[in-house]
Design a protein that fits this description.
The chain has 208 residues and is of the alpha/beta class. It has helices at 3-10, 13-20, 24-35, 54-63, 70-79, 86-103, 152-166, 194-203, and strands at residues 118-126, 129-136, 142-147, 172-175, 182-186, 189-192, 206-207. Helix 1 crosses helix 2 (13-20), helix 2 crosses helix 3 and helix 4 crosses helix 6. The termini are far apart. The model has no long low-confidence stretch (mean pLDDT 86).
Length: 208
Amino acid sequence: MDIIAAYREAGTFRGAAQIAGTTHKTVKRVIARHEAGGTAPGRAPRGRNYDGVAALVAERVGKTAGRISAKRLLPAARAAGYAGSDRNFRRLVAEAKQAWRCEHHRGRRPAVWPPGEHLVIDWGSEGGLHVFCAVLAWCRFRFVRFAADEGAVTTLAMLAECFEVLGGVPGKVLADRMGCLKGGVVANRVVPTAEYVRFASYHGFRPD
């Protein structure tokens, strides 16, 4: 039997449930939907146990430029009436910090790569093997080779093979402070090894 018709006949949720062969909770839900015009009744938004201290957290995060920790903020929140868990409070602080960073983003300037000017190289590892990767910054051409070590001789051999595959030599080779190519650091500037400088001079590129 139709639940709505059963409710009209019985007049109660439990009576209609017995007639329709269902539970009184289902009858109540169906009747509420019917009285709302055939759609499910909207749920009232539920508050969170840290809503009362959200403004306090946002204020402290703003004053410290997003550096204050949840552990440091928790005593002040407890004094302001927060009675929830530490985990919930850490979530609130993380959200407040993220919101602050979005509003105070410094912005990024995209790099402009001229064709053939920059080759970016780096080492990685995969399954116990060392992976040499070189990428032309402008066209994203990628050169990948596997090796047994990350020494200077291997790195320079990989670079030479990369130049052969490219059919030319870029203007600059950017390396991420590779230990095998770094002779030292002066005034926070990396000084390449003499061997790497000779290799660069021979091929005609500038190490960076």
